[in-house]
Amino acid sequence: MFSKWLLMLLLPVVLAAVAVIYKIWDMVSALSTEFIGPIPCTLEDPDSTTAVSCPTIFDAPTKALSCIIPAYNEEGRLSSTLDEALAYLQRRRDRQGPQFTYEIIIVDDGSKDATARVAASYTRKYGIDTVRLLRVSANRGKGHAVKRGMLVARGEYCLLMDADGATRFSDLEKLEAELDKILQPSFGRPPASRATTGDTQGPLGVVYGSRAHLAKDAVVKRTRLRNLLTQGFHFLVYFVAGTRVKDTQCGFKLFTRRAAAILFSNMRLQRWCFDVELLYLADQLQIPVCEVCVNWTEMPGSKIRATSVLLMATELLILKVMYQVLGIWAIHSELTLRKKAS
Questions:
Q1: Per-residue pLDDT, 195
Q2: Rounded to whole angstroms, how far apart are CA atoms 235 and 155?
Q3: Degrees, nearest 5: CA angle 73-74-78
Q4: What number is the average pLDDT over the span 255-276?
Q5: What single-letter DSSP state applies at residue 196?
């Protein structure tokens, strides 16, 4: 009788575990499939019916800076972010001269609102050479949108910036100053070897903008549950990618073109934890990474929900298992990626 009751108690647990494993495996299969054959994206010119050809990040750069802004249902916040960014970039061009060229790539991640219409209005105003709208055929998540934008960037340096404008755009100069300190000419080589290397592919380096200096104030303002979830997430990040960066999730990051090309071409996660995957990939490829504090403001309209936390944990688990435990996900070499892109 006891064994019968035990079986009745365990059966729902076993079934639930099987369902979770099946769901995770389904996610992994979808990620692997789209890594090989990504869904369509279109670079749109609102004033033309002719298709605009997409460049590739493995081409030589034709701009000094590319700014990639992923956007999903951001019609209410996108305009103020673009206004701030474009005003800063124009002031900087006036200061530095015509050699400072730039582009902003807005990646519409299958929005259901007027995000694309807002972006298109800026393309009309500033021209498609300056403001570009890349439309993803279906919503896949922030990580996927950032990846697709990076892979068509034309800049020597590539900036990721969230559409909510929570970070002051002028803090780009802080990121640039720190990036210049850590640049190295090739994988695993220290900065001191710059002068002697024959590598001409371009420098490597990544800077993560950080809100870690605001952590104490945030802990006071958050609920106990929110703090517990935050601490749990940080533990999982440490478990997967170590402690090189305290704040992996701030939406303000700067990459050299070469670093962006190999990191985003290897990236598989599509939603919340792609930042952690990039950090892990950079560590494996010995690409230098540093962190710098930026000005940050809490903005209304956050898309993080309780289910988002569960998805983050799942993505971190997938990273750990697929890269480190099973070794199923391979990290492709720069040569392989260049051949694939050509």
A1: 40
A2: 35
A3: 160
A4: 95
A5: T
| Helix %, strand %, coil % of the chain (to 5) | 50, 15, 35
Residue 162 in contact with residue 252, Cβ under 8 Å?
yes
Q: Are 299 and 77 spatial neighbours (Cβ–Cβ below 8 Å)?
A: yes
Write the pLDDT tens digit of every residue in 200-241.
579 999 999 998 776 655 444 445 655 566 666 767 777 777
Range 149-159 burial, b when 16+ CB lie within 10 A, else e: bbbbbbbbbbb
Q: Give the H/E segment covering residue 63.
A: strand 63-71
User: How far is residue 94 CA from its own chain's centroid?
Assistant: 29
* CA angle in degrees (0–180, nearest 5) for 141-145-130: 150
Beta carbons within 8 Å of 205's beta carbon, 6+ residues apart: 179, 182, 183, 184, 255, 256, 259, 287, 288, 289, 290
Q: Which pTM does this prediction carry? A: 0.88
Q: Which residues pair with 67 in a beta bridge?
A: 104, 159
